[in-house]
Q: What sequence folds into this?
């Protein structure tokens, strides 16, 4: 017996989709996107779009945590800060908890996104 992570209703272990809300009943994992504090850009806001849906915004010292179904996902990170703008698209397969860290690239003036141990 398990519960739908979207609507909370009880669903059968055998169901691939929730019979109440229709969403995937596949195992879910936590996606973390973190922006550590870095010198000099405290006000920079990073916009994060997961699977071309909602946009989230984080600043230095903040992180985003989402539970997503196992499988293929797209992470799009962008910023527009003073005279800098940069964007990165990362395609990944979620098969365990995953963590991405946004880090300034002082050579390019943009940023990089690294996957690290969750
Ligand atoms: Zn549901």
A:
């Amino acid at each position: 017996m398990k519960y739908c992570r979207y609507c909370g209703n009880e669903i059968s272990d055998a169901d691939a989709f929730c019979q109440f809300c229709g969403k995937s009943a596949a195992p879910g994992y936590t996606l973390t996107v973190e922006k550590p504090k870095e010198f000099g850009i405290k006000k920079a806001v990073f916009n994060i779009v997961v699977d071309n849906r909602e946009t989230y915004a984080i600043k230095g010292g903040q992180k985003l945590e989402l539970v997503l179904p196992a499988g293929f996902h797209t992470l799009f990170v962008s910023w527009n800060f003073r005279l800098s703008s940069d964007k990165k698209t990362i395609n990944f397969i979620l098969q365990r908890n995953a963590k991405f860290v946004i880090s300034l690239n002082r050579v390019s003036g943009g940023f990089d996104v690294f996957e690290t141990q969750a």
In short: The first strand starts at residue 2 and ends at 3. Strands lie at 2-3, 10-11, 28-35, 46-50, 55-58, 62-69, 71-81, 84-94, 98-105, 110-116. The pocket of zinc ion is lined by residues 4, 6-7, 9, 18, 20-21, 23 (CB under 6 Å).
